[in-house]
Fold:
Amino acid sequence: MKKALLMAAALLAMPFMSQAADYKEGVHYEIINEGPGSAKPEVTEFFSFYCPHCYNFSKTVVPMIEEKIPEGVTFNQTHVDFIGREMGVEMSRAFAVAHQLNVEKKIEQALFAAIHDKKQRFVSRDDVRALFIANGVEGKDFDSAANSFMVNAQMNKMKRDTQNAKLSGVPALVVNGKYRVMNDNIKSYDEMLDIAFYLSTKKD
Structure:
């Protein structure tokens, strides 16, 4: 009986392993960095608050990533500044400020909802600041963080990472700073995550 159960478990695992082995460069993922990957395995989502698909991704896929990500693999997010014209940079700053103040989830949800559900138009940093205040952040804390070295450093890193990822759109997943999941041939979000998790443990 025990032997039969083990065999059944092996057979159930085979389709996934076979599928993972069939993931091909140029079809399911693209190499964006010929050098070594990140020191530790990581999956990074690139997104914009102005992107409606990113809003849907934040509600449906990000929770799946956080729930299913393999042990030892880190999940990160990077805001891109090439959407939203001049406010794209301010939204990257807002994301970095939220990170520094440990209010990422609350502010991320509030910004997405303000832009896509309430159709609020942000035209300056003051508008962003007002949203932070409405969500429990002291104005002085926002001001201090917005002009801090740490926020500027994070913004510069996000911009470099975006350029290195060679993105044509968002949302996008980059794994270990080396592989970008190609969305064209993906049939479901589950498959997208399977590819990302497979790449996160792939040996170079």
Observations:
- The chain has a mean pLDDT of 89.
